[in-house]
Design goal:
2 domains; Rossmann fold; 7-stranded antiparallel β-sheet; 16 strands; globular
Length: 265
């Protein structure tokens, strides 16, 4: 874990409310794992007072050297609005990489990835890591959902590395007009996957976990939750364990990626 002020390499709008920002990091990120995140403080930050968490979208590499990270974010409030106004050459303060990411196994051949809205942010990093590790991505399926055409992100990037993409929107503007879990359920019945990875809204994750349990499939989910510190000091990102002890885990330290069997969804 490192704290440093980093230079903005780009901050490009990729949709009505969405941006990709590249950050030149000096150390620590070559070993970052998909699903990990950073805590970011905005330039001259007075309000909002606290840092904000952002999943690592992908690593920026030059000549096999990790030079930084890219974040994918949605403008939803005062903090992300300020971030969207930052320019190339500005500096932001980040703390990371933080948390536990997705885990892999050589036994995972047929892989399903489920992403809802901005939940796609860590999943491109996941897919690129699978590719680097020699996974046959022709056996990998992405189930990508959004409210409308404007909320569908990164489809071309996934298609470009050979992943089959199933698209759904709530309004039917692109793909099938249904929840993203509907084609996931159909595909799981047709041919059971070895693992399901998912990130998105809580209700989507609950449905994904239910499908995984029904078909006895391993499932890892990335929890989207508010974090105040990102390092376990505030204990504000508690998630309930499934075991009878009733104890809690914390998304910033024990997650944000969890084995679905661990959580009381």
């Amino acid at each position: 874990m490192y704290q440093e002020k980093v230079k903005i390499l780009w901050n490009n709008r990729v949709g009505p409310e969405y941006y990709r920002i590249g950050l030149k990091c000096h150390r620590g990120y070559s070993s970052a794992k998909p699903g990990q995140f950073i805590m970011l403080r905005f330039p001259g930050q007075i309000a909002p007072f606290l840092r904000r968490p952002f999943s690592i979208h992908r690593l920026i590499t030059y000549d096999n050297h990790t030079a930084g990270i890219e974040l994918l974010y949605k403008v939803v409030g005062e903090g992300t609005k300020k971030l969207s106004e930052c320019k190339k050459g500005d500096f932001v303060d980040i703390l990371g990489p933080l948390g536990n990411g997705f885990s892999f196994s050589d036994h995972y051949k047929r892989i399903f990835i489920v992403a809802g809205g901005i939940g796609v942010a860590p999943m491109l990093f996941l897919a690129l890591t699978l590719q680097i590790n020699g996974v046959d991505l022709s056996e990998c399926n992405l189930f990508l959902g959004g409210r409308s055409r404007d909320d569908l992100l990164c489809r071309d990037e996934f298609l470009g590395i050979g992943i089959t993409v199933h698209v759904t929107t709530d309004d039917g503007s692109v793909g099938d007009k249904c929840l993203v879990t509907h084609p996931l359920e159909t595909a799981s019945k047709k041919r059971r996957p070895d693992i399901i990875y998912a990130c998105g809204p809580l209700e989507m994750l609950k449905c994904v976990v239910g499908i995984a349990e029904e078909h006895t499939v391993s499932c890892q989910i990335s929890i989207e939750t508010i974090m105040a510190c990102g390092i376990g000091a505030c204990l504000g990102c508690a998630v309930e364990r499934k075991d009878p002890s009733g104890n809690y885990m914390h998304a910033c330290l024990d997650g944000p990626v969890f084995d679905a069997k661990e959580l009381n969804m």
